[in-house]
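<backbone_tokenisation>
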Amino acid sequence: MRMWRRVKRRFGISAPRLAVRPHIPWYLRWSMTVPFLVASLGLAWWAYGSGLELAGFHRSEAQQELAQLREQVTSLSTENTQLHDQVAQYERQIQIEQASNQEVSRQLKVQADENVGLQEDLAFFQNLTATHGKEGELGVHRLRLEHDQMPGEYHLRMLLVRGGQRAKEFVGSYQLVATVLENGQRTTRMFPQEASGNAQFQLGFKYYQRIEQSIQLPPDAQLESVQVRIFEQGAREPKVRQSVNLS
């Protein structure tokens, strides 16, 4: 009974309908579908562009403005580079001018110091001429001891003067005896070791001689004072002794 019902249901009036469709090759189906898709995309792109134009956005104008902005950026970058180069050039010129001004200021200071020194020398020699000293008398004047630029270096200046107008030429040498504080101990050092052992310390003048002498000590040594000893040629004892402290 059940078997009969199944056969009747499959082949009877209530059986499902049979659809017969023609077979279409895939390339024919794609040839009909692709134009429709292209047309749909073109329509969508046109609708998108029309919507932008209706909203006030014009693509050609935007591209033109974008190109102008790019040109402005390029121009500003070039101008910025040129300005940077000009600023660097002006900075170099300012540095050169500052160095030149410093050099001029230094030269002016040196000339001013020399002028002051010459004025002091003039006043000194005027006073020395006015006060006639003993004939042939030897004196040490304007004795100064100062720090030099480098550690352990010192500079000594003095002016040797002989009194009288008919004094004979003085021939001899000088020696510096330095009092030095080193490692907590006070010692003495001589420059040179022998009174007449160095041509740099030789003397030969008639009325006056200006002397400038550098003293070199270890950096950790401290110079306290210097005694100047003037020896006449052939003499073993100094003719003049005079001391000066470090200023």
Summary: The first helix runs from residue 2 to 11.
